[in-house]
Specification:
By secondary structure, the chain is of the alpha/beta class. The chain has helices at residues 2-27, 82-90, 123-136, 149-160, 180-183, 192-201, 213-219, 243-257, 295-301, 326-344; strands at residues 30-31, 38-47, 50-59, 67-72, 94-99, 141-147, 168-172, 266-271, 309-314. The model is unreliable at 1-26 (pLDDT under 50). InterPro entries: AB_hydrolase_fold, Hydrolase_4, MAG_DAG_Lipase.
Length: 345
Amino acid sequence: MKYIMKLCTCLALFYCSALQAELLATSDWTPDVIYGFERKEFSFTEDYDGKVTANLVRMQSQEPSTKAVLYVHGFVDYFYQEELAKTFVEHGYNFYAIDLRKHGRSLLPNQHPNFMFSVEEFYEDLDAALDVIRNQDNNEKVLLNAHSTGGLITALYLEDRPESGIDAVAYNGPFFDINDAFININERLLIPRVLKTIAALNPYGATGMKIPEQYGQSLHITERGEWNYDLNWKPIISFPIYWGWLKGIMDAQQRLQNGINLNVPVLVMYSDKSSTPILNFWREEFTETDVILDVTDIDRISDVLGRHVTEIKIEGGVHDLALSKEPVRKQFYQDMMKWVNAYMN
């Protein structure tokens, strides 16, 4: 009897050790698709599309540092901006980027690309990323750096999670309002009740709206740009804009525009000009203007973010300022890091 109990105990210990080893293995950092970066995958409870994951990417500072930055991408987007990451690393920051669920590295075959019913669906991804940054990698100060839709998501996240541990925020072309020219409709004419009905009846139906393909043409190396990113994750002809997604975005934008109160310093950077593509015609000005958002909307709405907001316009910038022409993005990095270093030291 004593032998049997001993054997059972050994087997139990072996099983627990094996299980622990498996858990540790699945939580380890692995080489990322971008050389020099590491990746960690999070798995979450299944949702209406089935399996859900998010992926955290990092590059550590060469010198010991307890300062970090978390980058959050936009719609039809993911992290591939190596130059942005290396700029932060060169300034002594540990760099992290989250590919949110259904985007980029986290997009699964069972999912509607980039879809959500509410921006709150992404909160779990941000919680997981910040837990690693703060509690596992022991960073003491954290900057949030977000682009486009990532700016909208994180603004409401910080409002709802004041205990998140973010020390400052730097936004790059944040998506605080829908560009009427971009969707060819004034969203205020799209009566909320009508939108709610359409989204409820046909959430996965395509609205017919799209991101102008001239933006992708201005960026990708196979077209007119200099950047070589994965077109499966960020196609030049964008993923569909679904009715359910549009309602979630407009709900979030309305809430933000009503006013929030971020209790940390906020930097909002954006291009000095917008331009409106017409059909598929190309104009050279698309390489030095924001063709996605109306920058006057960003200027107007930034005032409602909180009491400590700094705005900087970048002459000749595109929608993602980090992807502008080299002289322009050098100015962008110089202005951003001057502000960041002032508030993160």
